[in-house]
Amino acid sequence: MITPPPSTDYAAYYETYISLIRGRDPLKMLESQVFDFKALLSEIPAEKEEFRYAEGKWSVKEVIGHINDTERVMSYRALCFARGEKKELPGFEENDYAKAGMFDKRSLYDLGHEFGFIREATIALFKSMSADVLDNRGIANHNTVTPRALLYIIAGHHQHHERVLRERYLADIL
Fold it and tell me: Against a cut of 0.90, is the pTM above it?
């Protein structure tokens, strides 16, 4: 099991995600989340795909698009720092990305299918990393972070948003 990162390896606001994975194997979590998430998506009826639980909140499809975008960004950061990148990487504004992604114009099936490909690539990336590069430090969005922390962030971010989908978007049908 890949041990959790120390708090010096990530910005404090990521603790929410990392704490959801502590005590678990993050790679096994990534693997199990693929099956659990695809099963969840298969339960969503068409009339719920663009549902928003409150004004100004993302739709179901936008949440899934956000999960996909975030995993890509975090995996890219992990790749860069594992390979020794010394340049600071930019942040990303999640609301701007969600708007630009036009996820409500895509099918839920397509977004879920894309998630599967992204996740398989993420798993392959982290399995390819040797233990010594997991603690390489880099700077993204003005904060220090390591590939180890990014692995936990990816798994925890997904766990957080899947919980939000279940509790705030789909509680009446699950």
Answer: yes
